[in-house]
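Following up on my earlier thread - several people asked me to post the actual chain instead of describing it. Fair enough. Here it is, all 172 residues.
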Amino acid sequence: MVSFSDPQTANATGDPVDQTHQPVALSVLRQRALGWLARREYSQWELQRRLVQIGATAAQADALLTDLLARGWLSDARFAEARVNARQSRNGVQRIARELRALGVDDETITHVTVELQATEVERAFALWCKKFKQKAVEPREKAKQYRFLQARGFSHAVIRQVLESDTVERD
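Reply from S.P.:
Thanks for posting it. Predicted structure:
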């Protein structure tokens, strides 16, 4: 059996890696999963990946995830809402949706949690732009820099044009 305190058997996140490939007891997996969920929300895909990394079989991971879902302790919708709340002040809808999709959240849930963000997209982009640049670009090179800044944060072209062509420089 692998010692959990042995630094040689820990992965990059500090979780032990079972190098003997023996299945880990379901009670140990449950304890680890609950510890992770106590710290933050996880998507089903993310939690399954972590369980497999510490030595769970696919059947064990599926059984544990099914139990956690049934008890309401694991929820992709709650995970998506938490991720949106953490990212909305500095990222656009496109980037947030891309992150959620990469973390295994289904498109229906992504659409549901990003609907409200659509209404405030221009205001959030403008606030981010004001914080970074403080003045309108005069030269095309500077305007391109500001455009790329907002584009890298996941704002749409239409929103970026609205922000950069805005007459108001200072926020109310």
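The first helix runs from residue 26 to 39. That should answer part of your original question.
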